[in-house]
Predict the structure of CADM3 protein.
Amino acid sequence: IPQKPQIFGHEQPIDEEKVARLTCRSSGSKPAAQLRWRKGNKELKDEGTEVVEDPNGKTFTVSSRVEFRVTKEDNEAEVTCTVDHESLQNSERSTTQKLQVHCTWRTGVMGQGRGAGDGGRWSLTAIPLCSPQEFLWEKEGSTAPLQRSSNSILIFPFLNKSDSGTYVCTATSSMGSVVAKYNLDVSGKRGCRAPSSSCPWLAQPPSS
């Protein structure tokens, strides 16, 4: 009877857009078992199968390899290797591992509202390219954080000139943290200065 398969190659996080190379191995089958892969509900085609006789001279160890390019959406995705063998009849013997994808951390902040003059409603939204669990909003020069939550939006219900300044958003996930800044200049003419050139990924606020 084939042993429960083992998956190798997932021990370290895989960089986003790199190729994942995983190996599945099961021993103790006679005749040699077959291995199949899936990622989530999608079948994966193997890149090759190797069959080696076990030291007892009676059973076989089967190894199968898969390769695929990972994206940030593959973080926490489940990859499963299943053994098919006549001795298992209608039962299934499989192993599942979760992928850890090391995202290329980038983020930006976008301003949105009806202009940036006194009394206008305005919000800042962090736009991450990974999946943060927490957003910390701060204003440079202030000692206390403005907001710490899973919500990426910082809202100004009644914007006024005292809200002018540089706002900092720190997005954090299990893979690390990244910081983005937004320079907000509130004027009485309901206008907003363009973001600082030192943060080229920031979105231009809409004009009034």
Remarks:
- The chain has no helices and 17 strands.
